[in-house]
Design brief:
It contains five helices and seven strands, in the order βαββαβαβαββα. By secondary structure, the chain is an alpha/beta fold. A five-stranded parallel beta sheet has the order 1-5-4-2-3. It has a two-stranded antiparallel ribbon with strand order 6-7. The two termini are 32 Å apart. Residues 34-134 form the Rhodanese domain.
Length: 167
């Protein structure tokens, strides 16, 4: 404790060894190879509606995510690639991937599992493909984004129901 203020601690353990897939490699699977064994899962909340990867299943990371992921494991566990993404690929998507790996009964350290996290998240996907490949971003709404230092930054102006609880 410094100056009478306790330090905040992150309460979630995120493994460093997730399988990551780049935007280019995922785009190749989806658009060049048209691989049918790919499931893309967007774990963002309301910001999903400002644009997302085509065909992505929106499964917001919230209090009910564990049960949703158990159902996802039953329905799609045999896919060749299950790719999670959030805005930055740092917290929600790795946490969801870990939960799915547990639901599938595989070890997160195993390179044999089929669960991936999109490297650098949707922000990098937009940076890589916006204005270059029209079919790579579905329902892109420019009103939801702002340009900061020549990069698009998503503006989430829709609070989640959990944020509004009790207000």
């Amino acid at each position: 404790m410094e100056g009478g203020v306790p330090k905040a601690k992150l309460q979630i353990s995120i493994p460093k060894n997730f399988q990551r897939i780049t935007a280019e490699d995922l785009a190749s699977l989806l658009f060049k190879q048209r691989h049918s064994g790919v499931l893309v899962v967007d774990v963002r909340g309301p910001d999903f509606h400002g644009g997302h990867i085509p065909g992505a299943l929106n499964l917001p990371f919230d209090d009910a995510v564990e049960s949703k992921l158990e159902q996802l494991a039953k329905e799609h566990g045999r896919k060749d690639y299950i790719v999670f993404y959030c805005m930055y690929g740092q917290l929600r998507s790795p946490a969801a991937a870990l939960s799915l790996i547990k639901a599938l009964g595989t070890d997160a350290a195993s390179q044999g599992n089929n669960v991936y996290v999109l490297a650098e998240g949707f922000k990098n996907w937009v940076k890589t493909f916006n204005g270059k490949k029209d079919d790579h971003i579905e329902n892109f709404d420019r009103e939801c984004w702002d340009e900061v230092e020549s990069e698009l930054v998503h503006i989430n102006d829709q609070p989640s129901p959990r944020d509004l609880a009790g207000h």
